[in-house]
Amino acid sequence: MHGLMMDRPLLISQIIDHAARYHGDAPIVSVETTGGITRTNYAQARARAVKLASALSKRGMGRSDRIATLAWNNHRHFELYYAISGNGQVCHTVNPRLFPEQLAYIMNHAEDRMLFFDRTFVPLVNGLREHLKTVEAFVLMEGHDDELAGEHDWLEFYDEFLATGDDDHRWPDDLDERDASSLCYTSGTTGNPKGVLYSHRSTLIHAMMSATPDVMNFSARDCLLPVVPMFHVNAWGSPYAATMVGAKLVFPGPNLDGVSLTRLFNDEQVTVSAGVPTIWAGLLAHLASSGEKLETLKRTIVGGSACPPAMIDKFRDDHGVEVLHAWGMTELSPLGTVNNLKNKHYAMSEAEQNAVRITAGRPPFGIELGVFDDDAKQLPNDGETQGDLYCRGHWVLQDYYSEGEPALREGWFPTGDVATIDPDGYMAIRDRSKDIIKSGGEWISTVDLENLAMAHPDVADAAVIAAAHDKWDERPLLIVVPKQGAQVAQDDLLGFYDGKVAKWWIPDAVQIVDEIPRNATGKVRKNVLRETYGDVLKQAG
Ligand code: AMP
C-alpha cells in the first residue's frame, strides 16, 4: 500500500519559486565584471529566470540539452542556474581556469549547444570558438556594447537575448525529478576530466540537508557571500541551499582579493561565507597587514583541500569567526562531511575539542562513509585504522557522464582519499591515495606534515611529497614558499617538527620555491612537484 500523500517531484524551479513567493524582497547583491554593483532580489531574479527560460525554448533548446557557462559569481549566473535547469535543460558550469585544450575537450564532450560567458573571458572564447564543435550561440552576460559588437560579429548580448523571452512562460510540467539538471567536470590532476551529471532530485536533497544547522547552517537571517566559484561544484550547492531558505546573497564577481572581499563583507554585513583555504590565506594576510576586521562574519565553510588548523585558530582568535571544516568532491555534489561538534563535546577540555575540530567532520544524513583495505574488506571506524575512503548516499555519483568504466565498487563510490573514521563518524583525511608516502613500508601522512609546516610563522605555503629514496623507498620532502621578506633555514623548518610528529615522519630535506603549482580548483599539483623534485633525495645520496 502506498502512502496517501502528494507525490510532487523535487525540482530546482521550486526553489526559486518558493524564494520569490515568501522571500521576494530578500536582496541579491552582485559585483559586475565591469565594476559597480547591481542590486536585485528573489522576486526579480525569478521573473528574469522565467523569461530567460522562455528565450531558451524559443531558441530551440530541448529537453536535457547542455548549455554552458563560463562565468564569475554574479546575478546573471544565478539566473542562468534556475532558467536552464528549471526549463529542463542541463546547466554545464565550466571552470575558466582550465587550459584551453581542456575547455574545448569538456565542451565538445558535453556537446554544449550554447555558451554564456562574462566579459573577462571574451579573448578566451574567441580563441576557443573554432575548436567548439557543437556550440551554436555565444552570449556575453551583459547589455549591448557597440564596441564589442563591432569587434566580434559572433557575439550576442544577454539582455537582448533575455528580451526575446515571454514574461508569462511556465516551467515545464512534465519534468521527472530524476532528470539531469546540471553538469560539472572533475578537475582531475591527471588524465581527462570526467563529467558528473546531477539530477533535480540529488540537487534538492543535497540543498535541503546543506542548509541544516549541523551542515552549512543557512537561514533567512543570514547573508551569504559564496567565495567558492559557481563553476566549482555549483559553489558547493550554496546558491540552491541559501535560496531555499531565503538568505540575502552577495556575489563577489571577479574580485576575490583581500581588499575587495573585506570591503564587501563589511559593507553588505555578510554573516556566512564559503571557500577554499588558498582564498582565506590571502584574506587573512590582508587583514593582518591592514589591521582591518571582519565586522559581521560569523562562520565560514572551508574545504576543497585540507584546512590547516592554524587557519581555524586565526579565524577564531583574531576575528571571532567559526570555521566549519568540510570535505567533499565533485562526485558528491559536493558535501561529504562538515565539522560541527556534538552536545557531549562541550563537556570536554579545549584540547579534546580541538582534536575533534581539526578533522574533516562527520557525514550528515544522506551520506554513508566507510574505510576499506586493498581487498575491499571494510575496516573499523576506530579513529586509527586508515584505509581507502568509500562513500554512498542520496547525492553521490552512480556513473560518470558517458564513461564506459563502472564508477562504483559493490555499490560504493571509491573517493581516492585515504582516511580514518572515528566511532562518532568524524573523518580525517590522511592523503590522496596516490599522494601518500610509504617509507619503509609504513604510511606517512602528507596532510599532517603540511598542516604543521603551515603553522610555522615564516611559511606562506607548503606541500609535502614522496621523494624516491634508496633505503626507505620513499621519504617525505618538504616544499615551502616563505612569507614575503622572511628568511627560512632548513634546520629551523625541520626542527619545528620536533616533538610534534614521530621522528621518522620528519621530512629529510626542504626545497624553497617561489610558488607551489595548483590546478584550476586550487589543489596542489603533486604530480608536477614529484616530476621536478621526486629524485632530489636520490641525487643527494
Ligand atoms: P574536487 O572534486 O575537485 O572538489 O576534489 C575532491 C578532492 O579534494 C577530495 O577527494 C579530496 O582529496 C580533496 N579535498 C576536499 N576537501 C578536503 C578537505 N577538507 N581536506 C582534505 N582534502 C580535501
Describe this structure in words.
- By secondary structure, this protein is α/β, with parallel strands linked by helices.
- It folds into 3 domains: 14-200, ANL, N-terminal domain (Rossmann fold, 3-Layer(aba) Sandwich), CATH 3.40.50; 334-432, Luciferase, domain 3, CATH 2.30.38.10; 437-540, ANL, C-terminal domain (GMP Synthetase, Chain A, domain 3).
- 30% of the residues lie in helices and 23% in strands.
- It has 18 helices and 24 strands.
- An 8-stranded mixed sheet has the order 2-1-11-10-12-13-14-15, with helices on both faces. Strands 7-6-5-3-4-8-9 form a 7-stranded mixed sheet, with helices on both faces.
- Helix 1 (12-22) packs across helix 3 (75-86).
- It is globular and about 70 Å long.
- The termini are far apart.
- The mean pLDDT is 94.
- The structure holds adenosine monophosphate (AMP).
